Amino acid sequence: MLIRELTENNEKLILSSFAKLSVQTKGRERQEQKCSVRTDFQRDRDRIIYSKSFRRLKHKTQVFISPEGDHYRTRLTHTLEVSQIARTIARSMRLNEDLTEAIALGHDLGHTPFGHAGERVLQEVCPLGFLHNEQSVRVVEKLEKECCGLNLTFEVRDGILCHTGEKRAETLEGRIVRFADRIAYINHDIEDAIRGGVISENELPAECLEVLGKTSSKRINNMIVNIAENSTNQNDVRMSEDFGKATDTLRKFMFQNVYIGSIAKQEESKAEHMLRQLYNQLIQMPGLLPKEFSDMIEKEGIHRVVCDYIAGMTDRFAVKVFQSIFIPLSWRILDF
């Protein structure tokens, strides 16, 4: 018996009846021969980790643009933290940890440079619209591997799409990632905001801390336990009413005091202006696009291609491209 088949049999014996077993996948858009060692969901996880878009997350903003310090989160560290939280919840509920991990690692692959500031610009300037969860699916379906895509399973793509927005994932594993994403960014952004002097610990709403916990680690642990206690052996993923209300209140506090209008956001207008200028210039002069993108224009259209190009940039690459287009180089005569 193959190692993969042993793993698939173990899933049937160990996992909850509500878990999505690897053998139950709806499959891939293009059929492939099965791996002898890894299940389909394990294979998806590995493909995401080895993708270029995953590596680029290292240099994409989470909240703070170009922070002066080595300990602030990036989009990559956020992704890893979401994965850890999601796997812990899945394990406690006896759901498919491999599927959960693959969704978590891929959920932000389509995120823009400069965080949500970049997303706002592309929503504004692109007539086709832009949402980072939809772009993440586009990355794994079309843009990775020289426009061949990663050919992931339906369940992973569905979980990535539904980690935010109005749609709910078909699997409980996908719904876990939605909660894990929120748990991660609320608590870890609080840590970064306090470290950066944007807010103080005393400003956090006391009524939320009474319910969720006084420290970041206690809140994360309590939220994970609360979800497990309220969701295990049920066909849904939920928090208790008091935890859900406290989480929403804490999230609103972060939007009011950190995500919008705080000193941490003072540089965002510059980033937005830069991306807006880049988009408009590339639309007018598509010859500035790299060949692999310009070759896609006839099939995909200029707006989609420029949107793909900018969304895939890291913060520093966006600055570099902007400088190459708009900032004149110094001229000098060689003196022999």
Walk me through what this model shows:
- The chain is mainly alpha-helical and 336 residues long.
- It has a single domain, classed as Hypothetical protein af1432.
- Helices cover 60% and strands 0% of the residues.
- The chain contains 17 helices and no strands.
Which key terms come to mind for this protein?
single chain; flat; Hypothetical protein af1432; 336 residues; 60% helix; 0% strand; mainly alpha
How many discrete domains? 1
- Number of helical runs? 17
The CATH H-level homologous superfamily: Hypothetical protein af1432
DSSP summary, beta strand count: 0
CATH class: Mainly Alpha
Indicate the structural class. Answer: mainly alpha
**Outline:** flat
* Radius of gyration, CA atoms, in whole angstroms: 22 Å
Quaternary class: single chain
Point out poorly predicted stretches.
none
CATH architecture group name: Orthogonal Bundle
Order of helices and strands: HHHHHHHHHHHHHHHHH
Helix content estimate: 55-70%
Largest sheet: none
Q: What percent strand?
A: under 5%
| Gap between N and C termini | 73 Å
Task: Write a concise synopsis of the structure shown.
By secondary structure, this protein is an all-alpha fold. It has helices at about 5-15, 40-50, 50-55, 75-90, 95-105, 115-125, 130-145, 155-160, 170-195, 205-210, 215-230, 240-260, 270-285, 290-295, 295-300, 300-310, 315-325. The protein has a single domain (about 40-325), classed as Hypothetical protein af1432 (Orthogonal Bundle), CATH 1.10.3210.
